[in-house]
Design goal:
The structure holds 2 protein chains of 2 kinds. Chain A is mostly beta strands. Chain A contains no helices and 11 strands. In chain A, the strands form 2 sheets. In chain A, strands 2, 4, 5, 9, 10 and 11 form a 6-stranded mixed sheet that branches. In chain A, strand 4 and strand 5 form a beta hairpin. Helices cover 0% and strands 54% of the residues of chain B. The chains are: A mainly beta, B mainly beta.
Chain lengths: 111, 112
């Protein structure tokens, strides 16, 4: 069964610290993987998309990695800010154009 | 900027009521989607539409129907609301079938 599992479920860090969110998937065949950020009370917004051939992609302080062999992705946030407090959702697209959503990681950055 | 708007941010309904959730996008996207989001479960696809008057069932269509009479508008209908339909409902649109989806702010529906 195609699944996307994210860890941790929730995380609290101090402002200015770095953190890494994990996404493991069993989706096959794999097409691409996208990370979304969802602020409280808002819809998700795309941060980055990873295709099979890409290992690393950055978007400002956000860096996503993909290991297609182990079917793992991570989202690294550098020098966290209070505005990074949100839910981060990993979404994998299979070869048949189906999207499989992870349950998300809730990040809270405190001062 | 793509804008997806949803008719209500919060909605409280009684069991058995018919409920309409409206979604409008302003970027001429062909594809529109309805999801529900529950804690610990992530987003689950209810229905999607790839053209006017076209609709496809998602993973959890039971108890829901949809309507797409105009390209920019996609409605979700709960024919007879039940308490297990209490959830956050998110609408999204995209240019291609599975390109980046742009989401609305969500409607938090409570069925009493």
């Amino acid at each position: 069964k195609n699944q996307v599992e994210q860890s941790p479920q929730s995380l609290i860090i101090l402002e200015g610290k770095n953190c890494t969110l994990q996404c493991n998937y069993t989706v096959s065949p794999f097409s691409n993987l996208r990370w979304y950020k969802q602020d409280t009370g808002r819809g998700p917004v795309s941060l980055t998309i990873m295709t099979f051939s890409e290992n690393t992609k950055s978007n400002g302080r956000y860096t996503a990695t993909l290991d297609a062999d182990t079917k793992q992705s991570s989202l690294h946030i550098t020098a966290s800010q209070l505005s990074d407090s949100a839910s981060y959702i990993c979404v994998v697209k299979d070869g048949g154009n189906k999207l499989v959503f992870g349950a998300g990681t809730i990040l809270r950055v405190k001062s | 900027d793509v804008k997806v708007t949803q008719s209500s941010r919060y909605l409280v309904k009684r069991t058995g009521e018919k409920v309409f959730l409206e979604c409008v996008q302003d970027m001429d996207h062909e594809n529109m989607f309805w999801y529900r989001q529950d804690p610990g479960l992530g987003l689950r696809l209810i229905y999607f539409s790839y053209d006017v008057k076209m609709k496809e069932k998602g993973d959890i269509p039971e108890g829901y129907s949809v309507s797409r009479e105009k390209k920019e508008r996609f409605s979700l209908i709960l024919e007879s609301a039940s308490t297990n339909q209490t959830s956050m409902y998110l609408c999204a649109s995209s240019l291609g079938a599975y390109n980046e989806q742009f989401f609305g702010p969500g409607t938090r529906l409570t069925v009493l």
